[in-house]
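Action item from last meeting closed. Structure (362 res):
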């Protein structure tokens, strides 16, 4: 099992640790609900150094990205980032990812899911004719996500970069907490505001940045946050989790990701996906709230009022903010409209739920 540069700090703080994507990661510290509310209302720090980062360089870097991703990366200028996905030959999703434009038409950084690092690398490499310089910098890159409404406020004194006014899906590079060549972005996976801090794992830089962040946030009660609360936070915002809500067998159109599927260019399976858009999808990813007191879980079956199987739950939890069961799942398209009644198989009972507009928490 791999460690991140912060693993010793997590264990010293008494974190509940578990294996995730081959890494020894903190699941919770003070408890998922407490950590969830801390991020929603204040500020918390996630160690997400297990994520993967690839650097693509050269005059054909953009062309390669355009070939393998569904979104239109040609619109990116220096300092902008974009959410996208890697479709496979059948229209399914190899992975979802972030594309960072470091130097327009020349240098890009791709940020991929930890469990898919090798899979994504191999997938992209098969389309590289050798003209694009590719570097997998995952193992030497630290990544902390400082999330919450107070995040940028407490971090601004640690840098001369303007992160207080950093626009959504943009980034800056510079000196942070005395460490050079730090990239700070505002993409987020909690919907609570904040930034992500990327830097190279060298010397004592990891400890230096960690200590500086916690020192800066001590007065407002900053806390370390585990992956358990990260999951409940992202679900309340209706953000997809790879392996649950999207995978190799679900298309971006079925997953409600038509907005990152641009047919102004050709990419892997674009012809298939264009036909699917024109013909309509048979299943759709929806958000639902439990009407009855119950908690939906991954893989639970979804039925109609007559008991017919119409889909499956992909993600579910007890929402700490709403104090009710919420979930996402694929259902047949005729049951996907807001207000539609669903019945979730929970402990041999069919518990009533209703389709709602995402996000669950505005």
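Sequence:
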């Amino acid at each position: 099992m791999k460690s991140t540069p912060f693993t010793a700090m997590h264990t010293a703080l008494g974190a509940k640790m578990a294996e995730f994507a081959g890494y020894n990661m903190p699941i919770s510290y003070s408890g998922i609900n407490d950590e969830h509310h801390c991020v929603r209302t204040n500020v918390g720090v996630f160690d997400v150094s297990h994520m993967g980062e690839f650097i693509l360089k050269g005059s054909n870097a953009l062309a390669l990205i355009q070939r393998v991703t569904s979104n239109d990366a040609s619109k990116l200028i220096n300092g902008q980032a974009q959410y996208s996905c890697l479709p496979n030959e059948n229209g399914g999703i190899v992975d979802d990812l972030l594309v960072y434009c470091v130097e327009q038409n020349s240098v890009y950084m791709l940020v991929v899911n930890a469990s898919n690092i090798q899979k994504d690398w191999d997938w992209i490499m098969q389309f590289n004719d050798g003209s694009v310089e590719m570097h997998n910098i995952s193992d030497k890159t630290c990544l902390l996500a400082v999330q919450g409404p107070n995040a940028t406020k407490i971090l601004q004194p640690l840098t001369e970069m303007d992160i207080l006014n950093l626009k959504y899906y943009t980034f800056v590079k510079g000196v942070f907490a005395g460490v050079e060549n730090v990239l700070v972005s505002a993409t987020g996976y909690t919907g609570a505001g904040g930034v992500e801090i990327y830097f190279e794992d060298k010397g004592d830089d990891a400890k230096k940045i960690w200590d500086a962040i916690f020192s800066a946030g001590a007065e407002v009660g900053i806390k370390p946050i585990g992956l358990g609360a990260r999951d409940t936070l992202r679900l309340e915002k209706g953000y997809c989790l790879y392996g649950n809500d999207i995978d190799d067998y679900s298309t971006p159109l079925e997953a409600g990701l038509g907005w990152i599927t641009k047919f102004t260019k050709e990419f892997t399976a674009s012809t298939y996906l264009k036909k699917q858009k024109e013909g309509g999808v048979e299943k759709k990813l929806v958000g639902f709230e439990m009407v009855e007191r119950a908690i939906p879980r991954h893989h639970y079956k979804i039925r109609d009022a007559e008991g017919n199987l119409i889909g499956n739950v992909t993600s579910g939890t007890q929402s700490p903010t709403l104090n009710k069961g919420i979930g996402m799942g694929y259902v047949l398209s005729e049951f996907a409209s807001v207000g539609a009644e669903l019945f979730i198989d929970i402990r041999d009972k069919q518990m009533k739920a209703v389709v709602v507009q995402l996000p669950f928490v505005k």
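Note appended to the action item: The domain at 7-51+139-236 is CATH 3.30.1360.120 (Gyrase A; domain 2).
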